[in-house]
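Why show two proteins at once? Because comparison is the fastest way to build intuition. When a single record is shown, students tend to memorize it. When two are placed side by side, the eye starts asking what differs. So, the first record is below.
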Amino acid sequence: MSITALRNTTRSPGLPPALVEALKAIVGEKGWSDDAMTLEPHLKDWVGYAQGSTPLMVMPKNTDEVAAVVKACAAAGVPVVPQGGNTGSVAGGVPHGEVLLSLKRMNRIREVDAADYTMTVEAGVILAEVQVAALEAGRFFPLSIGSEGSCTIGGNVSTNAGGTAVLRFGNMRDLVLGLEVVLPDGRIWNGLRRLRKDNTGYALKHLFMGAEGTLGVVTAIVLRLFPKPLEVATAFVAIRDLDASIELLALLRAATGDALSSIEVLPRIGIDIAMQFDPEVGDPLEGKHEWYAIVEVSGTKADGQTNATLEAALADAMEQGIVLDAAIAASTAQAKAIWRIRKALVLNLAKVGAEVKHDVSVPVSKQPDFVRRATAAVEKTVPGTRTVAYGHFGDGNIHFNLAAPEGMDAPSFMARAADLHRAVYDIAAEYGGSFAAEHGVGIVKLDEMARYRSEVELDLMRGFKTLLDPKGLFNPGKVLP
């Protein structure tokens, strides 16, 4: 599906008047809006792929109100689109004529149980607030992504968010113990269990994680917490080449006892972009190199050992020729400055020119080969394309983003997006990889679902969709081609 088609996709804005009055009565005076200015930020995705529409946004304040809204819409045969913070990259939460169900008023932290290492939260709680609440209880919630100041925990669950700490702690799916979900017929499934072990049949919670709101509305979550890190060592290193990233990963995992929480690889062009558009970003190293890595190791003892372990490991890596230069943060401020480089790259890449994004994963050991082959493929497809490949090399997730050749106008470059996607995704598929590592499918990647997922997989997914949502009223047109 072309980006132009995405932007123009709309459906009839009409709703039965009786349903409108019923929904307004369910959520109360402060729980709905049809005001154009209020709705506007909820109707477009931040990447710019889609511009949607809705006749009415409802904002329930509790699970019972969500269930009542869903039941009323189901009875009227009216589709619903659940929405969290609307920070996704594939337009999965943008409505196109449906009722928009925003979870932003469901923002209570219901319970923090430090002894159980759990936290029970409502879907509309901002991720950064979850992180702070965990720290205040002497615990740690490890999910960390660029939008953590505005994305919601329910959205994180529904998209199976990844981020910079997947290497050590796993995706969102690995951080959830239990869910509360409103089903498409309005029934409430209460699966808010705090159990680490529960072999009583099918693991229902996994159906809704990563389903992008197509099977139900996640209203509350039991999260796993971890011991609070008391010492974090962060380093910015120049590596010999891409192959060295895999060697460094193995060395650091062995040297730290798997306390390595992040290894983010960045190209020189990424450093230059960050420095060009963010005056607060500086180059931590004197010389210029082709590839770099941000490394972070965390420990639960404040005895200096974590920093010493990382320093010794990097010294070993330098002796072996894996690392060419390194700077270890001597303070929290310096660590934040290192991480700012990566954030500035993400925020400012589009300023270089038109951008075609890819969020792929391949087996960890195949990442260097993938980057080299995919770079050659896009150069052949659109000569002069500037490749900016970076990401979570510890878990095989590469953000293989492309900037238009210098002097090429945006419409001309974006007109080749489908060809560039095909070149990149075909190579990822050869390695047994995925075209959607952590950003999901939404609307943007429907064509890829049809091309790269087997008929057996698609039939199973459609079966679940038909079972739970036989009328197709939940987030229609998303995920399943």
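Second record. Ask yourself what differs from the first in the token line.
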Amino acid sequence: MHETPYEDSFFDIGACVGSLEYFEKEFVQQAVAEFSRIMKPNGKFVLDIPNIGSPEFEISKLIEEYLGRQDQFDLSSEAFETILDAYFVIDKKEIVGPMIQYFLIAK
């Protein structure tokens, strides 16, 4: 996810759903930079992150821990959006259960 075999500006659309919550800040930063690298300018990208602190997230975190898939994500939505701002325009943001979905446009 943070190193892909694709050329620069390869995709018009892309998505990363249900994955970033398993990684810490450094890896997430690398992944977002890679998403940007492989997206064409004005390409559309959708991703989600945990809505840390929400009651729904706390329940899903317990379930994930029970299943042996502990969340590693350690960024507030504000800190994550700062990372995004370097590469994408946030077109829309929605809270869906324990996750925050971002609809992005590549710069």
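One difference worth noting in the second protein: The CA atoms of residues 10 and 21 lie 25 Å apart.
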